[in-house]
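Translate structure to sequence.
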């Protein structure tokens, strides 16, 4: 995945970090940014796979 797309995904993920932390904290789970790093990496991976799936679908529709 290219660096520019990866940065866009990180911006999206970071825009929702506080919401995610709030959800976890409401369940009694407190995490700091260090603890959230693996979850952010997983989210980035999921977004990358979803992007690739959409990209491939878009290519098929143009054919």
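Result:
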């Amino acid at each position: 995945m290219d660096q520019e797309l990866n940065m866009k995904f990180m911006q999206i993920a970071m825009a929702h970090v506080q919401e995610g932390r709030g959800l976890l904290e409401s369940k009694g789970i407190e995490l700091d940014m260090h603890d959230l790093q693996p979850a952010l990496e997983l989210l980035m991976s999921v977004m990358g796979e979803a992007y690739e799936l959409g990209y491939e679908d878009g290519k098929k529709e143009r054919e």
